[in-house]
Amino acid sequence: MVQRDFTLTNAHLDNETSRRYLHIITWGCQMNVYDSNRMVDLLRPLGYKVTDKAEQADVLILNTCHIRDKATEKVFSELGRLKQIKEYRNQLGNPTLIAVAGCVAQAEGNIILQRAPYVDIVLGPQTYHRLPKMILEVARQSGSIIETDFPVESKFDFLPIPQENTGYSAFLTIQEGCDKFCSFCVVPYTRGAEVSRPVQTILDEATHLCSIGVKEITLLGQNVNAYHGEGPDGNIWNLARLAEKLSSLPELSRIRYTTSHPRDMDDSLINAHRDLPALMPFLHLPVQSGSDRILKAMNRGHTADEYRKIIDKLRKARPDIALSSDFIVGHPGENLKDFEDTMQLIRDVQFSQTFSFKYSPRPGTAAAISMHQVREEEKDARLQALQALLREQQDQFNQNTVGRTIPILFVGKGRKQGQITGKSPYLQAVHIQGDTSLIGRECQVRIDKSLTNSLSGTLV
Ligand code: SAH
Ligand code: SF4
Ligand code: F3S
């Protein structure tokens, strides 16, 4: 996400060259990060180069998230800021185009143009392959364009292969959308029905990523472990089979996937964690609640004990696997006993890192119209207690890695002079004092110290 203070100055305007600039702000999940990179790829042939200065940009894109109320409101406040930039640039004779992409665009469509008539393009997550055409159209005629239908064609058939090495760790979307309709969630409405990309297109993209230096690929999908893509043999492949195929790419040393649903955590995938060294010992498996009553109200389709069983199997298959999850507190109808059940599940499982949220009612979802909403102060208190316990577990997990020697994939420079930073197999951030020539390599590091959100170590 790019966010910073904006001061009106024309120092950044690049009038002398014919180069066009693009500024993109991304909120939300990793799939939005992937999508933003693909929009950049799409606009590159039109001569657009990315700038991190909004006031320099001919095209401003907000790639938005609708998951909670706060995420959506951020978009409108950011638009107010971009409006000023657009007006200022227009005064200087630099036409500027504002596009709103992503899940808010999909959900709010026309409302965005009503609230922010200076927006030129509103496009959903399934139509962004049409962005170059839309930009040319807006340039030709005045007036805004909305494209939020779910097109029959797949955007993936129209996206160029990623052009530049954006790092040693890359995202690759393999599945999109969701048919599960959890009571609280907008994703089935913003991303549409569940669709898996064919295996071959994923292999081609992964092979290309490796050829530009990528060492770690995170396979993405709203329900990534529900993946069921057409294989080169004409059969349907599941995620375990896809991961096995990808692990045969010689340059690819690490494979991850996110986000998984407990209902789709089948034995073949659990066994893949035992059998494939490239599959990292880390799994983000959102449980949301530890109360059967609330899990049912959420329409999650599993019980707390079924979740515990999956964790047991995973730990048998891969004893050192680190577990991560998402939690929602204060879903309609959640009482103190339900909340205590969630706390107990957390104590039973022991997570290495997590995300937790207060329930936020979302338009069009089943839970939003429930008569049993939980008071805001109650949600605050539960979230605080939950996060304190999760924090303890995260600290404990990190503490347990101190003294161990583990392979770290270095991905960039650290914040301090002479530091480089990388990732452990368990998705911990690790930094060491080391030469930048190590960036892009996986090296053995002894972990010396656990800090608040990272570890420090020494190269061995
Ligand atoms: N597909 C994933 C989650 C996608 S949304 C899954 O099935 O778990 C990411 C996370 O946002 C969810 O796991 C949930 O914890 C949180 N979330 C979704 N809707 C929410 C809402 N209305 N209020 C609060 N948190 C929400
Ligand atoms: Fe949302 Fe549930 Fe689908 Fe996850 S599985 S994206 S939480 S509806
Ligand atoms: Fe947000 Fe859409 Fe992702 S709502 S979490 S950007 S799928």
UniProtKB/TrEMBL annotation:
TRAM domain segment(s): 399-460
Binding site for [4Fe-4S] cluster 1: 29, 65, 103
Catalyses which reaction(s): 2-thio-N(6)-dimethylallyladenosine(37) in tRNA + S-adenosyl-L-methionine = 2-methylsulfanyl-N(6)-dimethylallyladenosine(37) in tRNA + S-adenosyl-L-homocysteine + H(+); N(6)-dimethylallyladenosine(37) in tRNA + (sulfur carrier)-SH + AH2 + S-adenosyl-L-methionine = 2-thio-N(6)-dimethylallyladenosine(37) in tRNA + (sulfur carrier)-H + 5'-deoxyadenosine + L-methionine + A + H(+); N(6)-dimethylallyladenosine(37) in tRNA + (sulfur carrier)-SH + AH2 + 2 S-adenosyl-L-methionine = 2-methylsulfanyl-N(6)-dimethylallyladenosine(37) in tRNA + (sulfur carrier)-H + 5'-deoxyadenosine + L-methionine + A + S-adenosyl-L-homocysteine + 2 H(+)
Keywords: 4Fe-4S, Cytoplasm, Iron, Iron-sulfur, Metal-binding, S-adenosyl-L-methionine, Transferase, tRNA processing
Keyword Transcription regulation appears in the UniProt entry: no
Cellular component GO terms, alphabetical: cytosol
Major localisation: cytoplasm
Residues the record lists as binding [4Fe-4S] cluster 2: 178, 182, 185
Record-linked Pfam families: Radical_SAM, TRAM, UPF0004
Molecular function terms from GO: 4 iron, 4 sulfur cluster binding; metal ion binding; tRNA-2-methylthio-N(6)-dimethylallyladenosine(37) synthase activity
Cellular compartments annotated: Cytoplasm
Alphabetical list of Gene3D superfamilies matching this protein: Methylthiotransferase, N-terminal domain, tm_1862 like domain
Keyword match Coiled coil: no
Location of the Radical SAM core domain: 164-398
Cofactor: [4Fe-4S] cluster
Enzyme Commission no: 2.8.4.3
SMART domains the record matches: Elp3
Cofactor binding comment, as recorded: Binds 2 [4Fe-4S] clusters. One cluster is coordinated with 3 cysteines and an exchangeable S-adenosyl-L-methionine.
Domain MTTase N-terminal: 20-140
Reported function: Catalyzes the methylthiolation of N6-(dimethylallyl)adenosine (i(6)A), leading to the formation of 2-methylthio-N6-(dimethylallyl)adenosine (ms(2)i(6)A) at position 37 in tRNAs that read codons beginning with uridine.
Subunit composition and interactions: Monomer.
Family: Belongs to the methylthiotransferase family. MiaB subfamily.
Identification of the protein by name: tRNA-2-methylthio-N(6)-dimethylallyladenosine synthase
Gene: miaB
